[in-house]
Amino acid sequence: MKTLIQTVTVLVLCLIAQLYLPWWIVAIIAAAVGYQFDNTPGASFIAGFAGVAALWLGYAFWIDPQTGALLTGKIAQLFPGKSVAGIYTLTALAGGVAGGLGGLAGAWVKNAMK
Asked: Which residues, 6+ apart, have CB-to-CB distance to 80 below 8 Å?
């Protein structure tokens, strides 16, 4: 239950922050949330990964139809054999790794200070 709350916290805080700040703020927010929650490093990685991956996937699904899917189609052509769904997956993975590593770092700092 704690991991779910941590995931939702990361998602909501990153949603608000990404409206005004650069993409890498997700790692800082995930680290801060990972530090605040007394969770294991593995659970903090999963929470950061899931929260940011869900956010970026949601952004991709929301923004892509508004732009007529022009950019997604062009990026999919750059990668042989990749479809638009593959680009969505890569987007979620890229954000998830940034959030997951941030959450992991926050939990490690918390454990080091105990």
From this structure: none
Q: Rounded to two decimals, what is the model's pTM?
A: 0.87
Q: Count of CB atoms within 10 A of residue 60's CB?
A: 18
Q: Which of 80, 23, 96 is nearest to 88 (CA)?
A: 96
pLDDT tens-digit series, residues 46-96:
999 999 999 999 998 898 878 776 777 777 778 777 777 788 888 899 999
Phi, psi for residue 2 in degrees, rounded to 5 = -65, -40
Greatest distance between any 2 Cα atoms in the chain? 51
- Angle (CA) 89-14-24 rounded to 5° is 70
41-66 and 70-78 are packed helices; what angle lies between their axes, rounded to 10 degrees? Answer: 120
For residue 82, what are its two tokens?
């990749």
- What lies within 8 Å, CB to CB, of 46 at 6+ separation is 3, 7, 100, 103
